């Protein structure tokens, strides 16, 4: 693990070279493929170096981090062509990749907490530095204070655990704590990150104000930090979980249904995609809280699938925005008349978003449905509503933006570059081919 950290540290000077957009891009792909070849069936024993190591859960999250962050640079070429603080942008992304790598590969809870909080700073800089509306300051404050609100309680609960058992290494996390306050303090920061319904309002705000790279990292990785933390620590809280998880399953599922209804009323493309993320992560939250094997494996699959699919949708929204200079669905109409090839990509990503085969989303939803219905048959009602309205808002997004009469405003008739199609291809291919090797998703418990 140290070799990847050293490579990232030595990439710092590369970030400050003039006009080296593609060179940075290649380095990110190289480090991603180097990590890709580290796959093993006995993770915890093959990749330990100092306090860093990974099992399958953290391996997939790190792989997703490298992949999405390399595509973030690919999506932000307009920033480089205008030379808008591009060197600082590359350095910010590199810092973010480094912090996320340390977060996912840490085998110590306090080190995890430290980098978990540090990863917030580059995202904040991305939103405030490269967002394109004055409201980005407010969005940054929402993001910062929602997260910081639960940070101190989590740190106190970490210290409490250390005082009780004299270790913070995951390897020794088999002693269970039957203490409600510990459960709430430890999990609240993860529930905000996911985000759980009721504490989700920072997410649509942050997405709408963020540049495309900020939206991609928020949807692709930052939401997964919550699910990763819950899955990593749930085995210490099972005694409290069997009493309290009921409430979180209900909030996650009913919240997912309500947010699906909210999606049908959105006129802003990025806002609609952001709310759909809340609905998907509500199902993930419900499944983790059922504390069964199906739920954990399904949540892992769904997090990887959502990271690729949602990130791809934000790229599509940005491609339309760069031409029409608006995110409104009332003005983004009839685009199939101008860019039929791009309409195909809209269809592919919207169908993946509604969990159509052969996407990884379908496999994830099937596993989540198994988990939730085995927990309670009544979940069938809410799941059917979430699935139905998930299809409804995905089709609404596609049909409203691609069909209809084209709005005769100012439009750039530049019909898309190879870079943009490559960007969408690199999101969609892993999303639909990973399902062929889905048996590996069940190896980590």
UniProtKB/TrEMBL annotation:
The chain crosses the membrane at residues 21-44, 56-76, 88-106, 112-132, 139-162, 182-203, 215-234, 246-265, 272-294, 300-321, 342-360, 372-398, 418-436. Residues 106-388 form the NADH:quinone oxidoreductase/Mrp antiporter transmembrane domain. Keywords: Electron transport, Membrane, Mitochondrion, NAD, Respiratory chain, Translocase, Transmembrane, Transmembrane helix, Transport, Ubiquinone. It is found in: Mitochondrion membrane. The keyword Cell inner membrane does not apply. It catalyses: a ubiquinone + NADH + 5 H(+)(in) = a ubiquinol + NAD(+) + 4 H(+)(out). Its EC number is 7.1.1.2. The keyword Transmembrane helix applies. One of its GO terms (biological process) is ATP synthesis coupled electron transport. It comes from the Eukaryota. Pfam families: Oxidored_q5_N, Proton_antipo_M. Its main location: mitochondrion. Residues 1-103 form the NADH:ubiquinone oxidoreductase chain 4 N-terminal domain. One of its GO terms (cellular component) is mitochondrial membrane. It is a multi-pass membrane protein. InterPro entries: NADH4_N, NADH_UbQ_OxRdtase, ND/Mrp_TM. GO terms for molecular function: NADH dehydrogenase (ubiquinone) activity; NADH dehydrogenase activity; ubiquinone binding. Belongs to the complex I subunit 4 family. Core subunit of the mitochondrial membrane respiratory chain NADH dehydrogenase (Complex I) that is believed to belong to the minimal assembly required for catalysis. Complex I functions in the transfer of electrons from NADH to the respiratory chain. The immediate electron acceptor for the enzyme is believed to be ubiquinone. Core subunit of the mitochondrial membrane respiratory chain NADH dehydrogenase (Complex I) which catalyzes electron transfer from NADH through the respiratory chain, using ubiquinone as an electron acceptor. Essential for the catalytic activity and assembly of complex I. This is NADH-ubiquinone oxidoreductase chain 4. The lineage of its organism: Eukaryota, Metazoa, Ecdysozoa, Arthropoda, Hexapoda. The gene is ND4.
């Amino acid at each position: 693990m140290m070799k990847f950290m050293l490579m990232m540290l030595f990439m710092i000077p590369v970030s400050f070279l003039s006009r080296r957009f593609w060179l940075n891009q290649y380095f990110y792909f190289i480090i991603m493929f180097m990590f890709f070849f580290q796959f093993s069936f006995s993770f915890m024993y093959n990749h330990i170096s100092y306090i860093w190591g990974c099992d399958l859960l953290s391996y997939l999250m790190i792989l997703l981090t490298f992949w999405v962050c390399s595509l973030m640079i690919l999506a932000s070429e307009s920033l480089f062509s205008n030379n808008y603080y591009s060197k600082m942008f590359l350095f910010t992304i590199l810092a973010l990749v480094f912090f996320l790598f340390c977060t996912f590969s840490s085998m110590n809870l306090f080190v995890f907490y430290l980098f978990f909080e540090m990863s917030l700073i580059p995202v904040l800089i991305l939103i405030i530095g490269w967002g394109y509306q004055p409201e980005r300051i407010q969005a940054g404050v929402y993001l910062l204070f929602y997260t910081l609100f639960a940070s101190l309680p989590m740190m106190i609960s970490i210290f409490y655990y250390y005082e009780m058992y004299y270790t913070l290494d995951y390897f020794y996390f088999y002693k269970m704590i039957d203490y409600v306050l510990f459960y709430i303090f430890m999990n609240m920061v993860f529930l905000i990150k996911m985000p759980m319904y009721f504490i989700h309002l920072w997410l649509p705000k942050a997405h709408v104000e963020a540049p495309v790279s900020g939206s991609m990292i928020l949807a692709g990785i930052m939401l997964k930090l919550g699910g990763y933390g819950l899955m990593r620590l749930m085995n210490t809280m099972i005694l409290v979980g069997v009493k309290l998880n009921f409430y979180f399953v209900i909030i996650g599922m009913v919240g997912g249904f309500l947010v699906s209804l909210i999606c049908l009323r959105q006129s802003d493309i990025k806002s609609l995609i952001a709310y759909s993320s809340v609905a998907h992560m509500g199902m993930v939250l419900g499944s983790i809280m059922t504390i069964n094997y199906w739920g954990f494996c399904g949540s892992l699959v769904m997090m990887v699938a959502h990271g690729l699919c949602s990130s791809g949708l934000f790229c599509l929204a940005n491609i339309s925005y760069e031409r029409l200079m608006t995110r409104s669905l009332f003005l983004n109409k009839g685009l199939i008349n101008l860019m039929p090839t791009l309409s195909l990509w809209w269809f592919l990503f919207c169908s993946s978003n509604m969990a159509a085969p052969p996407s990884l989303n379908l496999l994830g939803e099937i596993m989540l449905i198994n988990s939730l219905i085995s927990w309670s048959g009544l979940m069938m009602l809410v799941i059917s509503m979430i699935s139905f309205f998930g299809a409804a808002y995905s089709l609404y997004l596609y049909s409203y933006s691609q069909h209809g009469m084209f709005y005769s405003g100012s439009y750039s008739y530049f019909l898309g570059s190879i870079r943009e199609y490559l960007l969408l291809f690199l999101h969609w291919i892993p999303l639909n081919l990973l399902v062929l090797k889905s048996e590996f998703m069940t190896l980590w418990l």
